[in-house]
Amino acid sequence: MSHGVLIVDDSLLSRLLVREELRALGFSTAETADGLAALAALERQRCDAVLMDCQMPGLDGYETTRRLRLREIGTGRRTVVLGFTASSDPAEETRCREAGMDGVLTKPLDPQALAMGGVGGETLGALRRFDGRTGENLLGEVMASFLAEGRRWLAAMRGALATGDSGALAAAAHALSGAAAVLRAPALERSCAALETSVAGGDFTAAPGLVAAVAAAYGRVAAEIRAGSYGLPTPCLRLCAPVL
Question: What is the mean pLDDT for each group of 10 consecutive residues in the chain (244 residues)?
């Protein structure tokens, strides 16, 4: 018996939105936060398809898919695996297919539903339609997840900056950029991408200023969320405090 779609993503925010989008389309879902957990889940239960985040700490989506394909040799099975990425690089599809994936989807999952705009724009309208369907405060849950993830990745950036760990700094910037893309916060997404590109290119000297720019962009998004409240409980609103 299959288990619908397995969502593999280290971002709680991304998993939450994808889960609701798929359920709205009538799919059952299961979730894991990393590649090793995904392989273990697929060992226990077959799925119709896997939506695989390409960039994850530890075992990324490419290596997870390669290991899955090796495991399927001789079994007569081939699980449909779709890469899930915030990257707009045309080479991404080639990389995904070389790893054994069957296709690529770009975050957010449904660009028509999660229309372009700021945090106060049509994205929130798209999320409110889920609230009406589920009877739950999905909007508040999404915002709380974003705030918590933003804080976590900013702390990781500052830690990496202090230790001179360029790999960890780039990874944290990429992760927060993905969350910003899901929420449609373009200024934050751009500042994270600038940091990731600079560090990946070997320029660590500009990193302190770029981290400060990311923190400022995150602070502006958090202020928008605080101004709108969006059904967030008081403890979550405290996460909106300035981070500079």
Answer: 79 84 83 94 91 89 96 91 82 91 77 37 46 57 84 94 92 87 84 92 91 94 74 45 41
| H or E stretch covering 105 | strand 103-106
Q: How is residue 91 annotated by DSSP?
A: H
* Token code pair at residue 196: 């990731």
Q: Report yes or no: 29 and 20 within 8 Å, Cβ to Cβ.
A: no
Strand pairing report for 49-53 and 29-32: unpaired
Tell me what pLDDT residue 236 has.
44
* Cα angle 83-85-88, degrees, rounded to a multiple of 5: 120
Domains by residue range for the chain, with CATH: 5-110 (3.40.50.2300), 138-234 (1.20.120)
> Model's pTM, two decimal places?
0.70
The strand order across the sheet containing 5-8 reads 29-32, 5-8, 49-53, 80-85, 103-106
Q: Around Cβ 91, how many Cβ atoms within 10 Å?
A: 8
